[in-house]
Amino acid sequence: MIIENGNVFLPNHCFQQINVVVDGERIYEITSRSSQTGETVLDAKDCYVVPGFVDIHIHGAAGSDFCDGTQSGLLKIADYLGSQGVTSFCGTSMALDEASLGRIFSEAKVFIDREHQGHAVMRGINMEGPFFSPARKGAHREDAFIAPDKEMFLRLNALSGNNILLVDVAPETEGAEAFIHEVSRHSTVSVAHTDAGYQCAERAFSAGASHVTHLFNAMPMFNHRNPGVIGAASDYAAYVEVISDGIHLHPSVVRAVFRWFGEERVCLISDSMRACGMPDGIYSLGGQNVTIEGGKATLADGTIAGSTLCLADCFRRAVGFGVPLEGALRAAAENPARAVGLFGEVGSLDRGKRADILVLNRDLSLKAVIIGGKTKTKGDTSPSRIK
Question: Which positions fall inside the Amidohydrolase-related domain (predicted)?
Answer without folding.
Answer: 48-375
